[in-house]
């Protein structure tokens, strides 16, 4: 071993024995638990004074020692992986973090399999997540053409093919990938066949794909097929769910009787099974299910109902009702629980109550009340916290606009408050990039108007304004969001992939007509923006079911199974459920 600092100029190296050997042992033991165990305990290395670092290149050892003595490191694409492995083995956590951060920036389609295996072997979760994202998006290409795929360890292969995130439209892609991996070393891997095939979702194969499996099984003579008659629910349970690529992630709009589905890829609308007529209801999606709660009926009565729409069944089911009717409330999903907060239940009755619905237990439970009554606010979830932004509240028989962000920490059941720069209501909010994008809404202005319906609505105006909140609920002016093309409030604001979509909306304070009254304008436009773009883009398609535009409707992104997948769940049929090793 050599000591990096022994050279006068710092560029060379000299024998470690230029310092007393005991000093080196003390230093290494002081800064590193691996060497501490070797030099202080009863290990052989402690007696001999020599540590044998097998399977480490001398250059890697030299880099490690240089870091331990100087806390300086220069990682390159050629050295990063070797230093990462050494730092993990020697438990040098700061160096491991440096290498991991470097490798995270290097992940690409070309090296994602190698880096995933590296992260999997050393339990580096951040590296696993980033590499898996590339693998998921490019699984078909990697499994068919990348040689690294053939050399994956069995445990790593199982970890990959077990993931829901694989972007494959058919399970036959996963089956073919496993077959290719098996054939690369048939004799060594044949005993692993049935174990690995348990992670291929065989009930998702179509009849045509099943014939391919049967023919290959007969040709290779290496496995026996097990068949079972399954209905829709049994098939879904047997396979454990769909892959990401088997869904179309669409934007759902619920208004009155109509439920419209917008596919941003094709920019086309289609109708889904309608729900009973409600307005000012709220909706959200959890995976492939849509939930709608509260709202106002056509007879002006308020609703306390909760409905669930199954994209597999194509129909609605009524679930247990809320403890009270709500409209224009917050409706949020966090950790398999649905939260209904605030809103109003009659024209003058604003609410400060809140409750949550457990999707597993199918029961409602009250949570801490809001600090004050609130409705017409923007709402979103970020890192296990609920955020209510702005809104309308009442005081002494009159209403006024809030300039607060209410934050509910799910784990402690406690609300906190943060002040905004301005009063606002009926904005939209989307969580993304470790913060919250707030879009449009009504804001306070210096020009006074008069509205008999809401007396304190004076000096409010519809805005093109958008801003960004950090996790602490405070405005972060370093994040720049372009203004909306027009003034919009009450729009459907949702995230689809990396884009923010704004659908419909209104501007009821646009201008005064000849009679001196405020006129209303409603939009049927669709705009989207992706962080980094300099402006919003308008889609050619308009909102369906209305020529005049709409506002105040429910909006969410929902996973809809593709038609080829839905065909498997229409009726009871025989499905392939498992494979076993055939007798030699």
Automatic annotation (TrEMBL):
Keywords: Kelch repeat, Repeat. This is BTB domain-containing protein. It comes from Terrapene triunguis. The keyword Oxidoreductase does not apply. Gene3D superfamilies: 1.25.40.420, Kelch-type beta propeller, Potassium Channel Kv1.1, Chain A. It holds the Pfam family Kelch_KLHDC2_KLHL20_DRC7. The keyword Repeat applies. Residues 21-77 form the BTB domain.
